[in-house]
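Example record used in the benchmark description.
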Amino acid sequence: MNIEYMTQVKENSKLRSFVNRGLSIEKIKHLELKYNKGEEFPKAFREYLFLAGDFHNGAFDDLGEGLEQLQEYAKEDMETAGQMVNKPFFAFDVLDSMYSVILLDETNEDPKVYLLMPFLAKGGSEPLLKPNGWDFTALVNEGIRRVKHNISF
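Model output (structure tokens):
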């Protein structure tokens, strides 16, 4: 795969003692078929999956159970909170039931990142879905920078 966006991931495949593990093209296609009706994910996200989709050393957390299980957790939290998103999304990170997601109906090669917050939305303190202010590549690069310099999120 030609890497255009995830150059920092490629150049920092090992941080401290943690080494990225990517997904095969076949596994990426499986995820696209299952979660995006067979359409390719945005280019930057596909590159990320290829380089670090099984394990990313730059601070994303899928709870150690993989991206498919993370999608199930997001779906379960949405159901438990009585919330619904009318757009297709893919979660790649979670912290305290707040998911970092990309929206799969957007057309940018480097998609915007959103926070999906089912329980905060249920309580009325936050919208269900809101932009977090980052494009995917910028967020990934910031995670790498923070790991390299021991800065917490």
